[in-house]
Amino acid sequence: MDLQANVPRWTPRPSPTRPLKKDNERDDEPQMDSFASDQEDDDGISFHNSRTKNFNNFPFTTWPTAVPPPPHIGVLEAPSSRDHSTEMNRSMEMERAIAQQPKGDDSFGNGISVTWKDLWVRVPDKTGGRRPILEGLTGYVEPGEVLAIMGPSGCGKSTLLDALAGRLASNTRQTGEILINGRKQPLAFGTSAYVTQDDTLMTTLTVREAVYYSAQLQLPDSMSRSEKKERADATIREMGLQDAMNTRIGGWSIKGLSGGQKRRVSISIEILKRPKLLFLDEPTSGLDSAASYHVMNRIIKLAQQDKRTVVASIHQPSSEVFELFHNLCLLSSGRSVYFGSTSTGNEFFATNGFPCPAMRNPSDHYLRTVNKDFDVDIEQGFGGKVSAAETINILVESYKLSEACQQVERRVSEICQKDGEALDSKESQAGFITQCNVLTRRSFVNMYRDLGYYWLRLAIYIALCLCVGTIFYDIGSSYGSIQARGSMLMFVAAFLTFMAIGGFPSFVEDMKIFTRERLNGHYGVAAFVVGNTFSSIPYLLMISLVPGVMAYYLVGLQKGIDHFVYFALMLFACMMLVESLMMIVASVVPDFLMGIITGAGIQGVMMLNGGFFRLPNDLPKPFWRYPMYYISFHKYANQGFYKNEFEGLTFPNEQARGPPSITGEEILRTMWQVEMGYSKWMDVAIVFGMVILYRLMFLGIIKTIEKVKPIIRGL
Ligand SMILES: Nc1ncnc2c1ncn2[C@@H]1O[C@H](COP(=O)(O)OP(=O)(O)OP(=O)(O)O)[C@@H](O)[C@H]1O
């Protein structure tokens, strides 16, 4: 069957850049679905269409629902009964109207235009090849417009948004052209805002705190604190969250906001800065119809102010919400079914034999018609039925041949020809010091409120140190205590520090929030690393000191406050190091289970090679002795702890042979094979140096990932 030969030509009404509704054109309150009604066109043909009154001047080849269709099965043809001369006249009229229609701004002004042409996105398939998830899409969105991306679940809405926002996953390959203001330029890190489908929020903060911290990070230093607070409060109110201002967002452990409320917090955070380009993935999911309407209405107003550009994927908008959008990009299985004004969608479907029934929300009708997930035949306006797959083919082919499609291509070319401005990602952002300060405070509050971050670890450390203290209680200075001291100190250096791995789930959550905020340009990578490092210091000090003092004094290690201070300092340095290591792991393996296994594996190797289980001189050369022994932080931790404990002590020699006593220094040299050429303070300094190195590596890895990802995707 040659679908292309039979599909009717569809021509849209001449308003791809439909002017925005004025406020007085509609109530602010959501209305009942009311726009599907029987109307008569100029030819006296009755058809169901909500917006028929808009179309009377234009030649839509709409299937009349009351008139029998031409006798073909599953193949659509232009109605033979049409008066062709009338049609031609109307076509000419339309072409004239199109020519006279203002094509948006002549320049981009301060706004951002996005165009995409022949956009393909492919992902690996099971056979080792690649399957397309977006197939040759072309479209545009201009300043002041709100584009709705619609289609059945899995049709590629999020993928299209990700592609436009420059955020595709690294296993995808993108071809085709995406231009921002007519130029090929990256769209991330502050040039646009993106509300993702999942709400990645700091669960311990209240709504007001979450939005206000974000305001402090995103708004420029030139704004006063009170102005930022005002902006945050106003945005919260705009999203209808005033009653939940002081409610914690909540997560798996504490019940806080509802799903819909979280959605609105996510939107609030991203619209705070009034972005010039806003991507929204399912902004209304979880919202009731009134909330959906108000949220979308607010976003439309945002687009109107200073001509901002909005692209939103949306699942099941009510008719009220659907009417708010300007253009519709309807997808099915990654293919473009329709791109054009939302007000001419009904025409397109009716023209192709799938008119929207009376009293049905048009968006429901479109989604039902283009969904092939369920093996249900689609009813045609004239009573026939075609399979869902065939319906989609008809619509896709019809759209390709339509004047609307050509019009979109023309508009894309026009926009691309303009010489648009380059985007500045650093525009009006808080300064580095402010970012570090705010991130440190926010992270500190989060750590304080999240029981799993440090409090639970503190409890477990106390329990473990009580066990250590009672098992090695009052260790004494007998010959046998030498081995016991060594084992106890090794346990502290290896196992107590290993336990810092318990914070990994919180690191993964932190990384998710960081990734979202970073991609939206809220702050820089360095500010995040500084904030994360400084906020954890008080807690790690507490964990080193409180359980440390219990273990130290119950065991009866070497007396003197300086010895205890060294012990606590080394424990603190090792914990910081393990946390830094786990942050690196979280940045590379952001999966909870995989990350813990990877982190535990790395630490296991270091522990094994740290000079306790196998004495340093016995480690096989070259790999384990050089460089692995020197890379392992356990080497320095063990050495430092041993020097701190054994130097200055003397143990009686209970063996029959040899001198009557043995000094700590001799034990260090012969028994533990410790490097004695430098002091214990050097060991702790090396561990702190490694902490700095690991944090820098963390920063470097994030920056590298940011740079490499677009290259992998083929951009
Ligand atoms: N990185 C990826 N690797 C493999 N497959 C992917 C990837 N991204 C998307 N897909 C697949 O592409 C298809 C489209 O996914 P996408 O998330 O864009 O759909 P969607 O229309 O947003 O769906 P929903 O409305 O349910 O969120 C799905 O089948 C999905 O499994």
From TrEMBL:
Transmembrane residue ranges: 454-476, 488-508, 564-586, 592-615, 681-702
Membrane topology, record value: Multi-pass membrane protein
Domain ABC transporter: start-end pairs: 114-358
Entries under CDD domains matching the protein: ABCG_EPDR
Region (Disordered): 1-50
GO molecular function per UniProt: ABC-type transporter activity; ATP binding; ATP hydrolysis activity
Top-level division of the source organism's lineage: Eukaryota
GO cellular component labels: membrane
Subcellular location, record wording: Membrane
One Pfam short name: ABC2_membrane_7
Main location: membrane
InterPro entries in alphabetical order: AAA+_ATPase, ABC2_TM, ABC_transporter-like_ATP-bd, ABC_transporter-like_CS, ABCG_dom, P-loop_NTPase, Plant_ABCG
This protein's UniProt keywords: ATP-binding, Membrane, Nucleotide-binding, Transmembrane, Transmembrane helix, Transport
Entry similarity comment: Belongs to the ABC transporter superfamily. ABCG family. Eye pigment precursor importer (TC 3.A.1.204) subfamily.
Name listed for the protein in its UniProt record: ABC transporter domain-containing protein
Organism per entry: Escallonia rubra
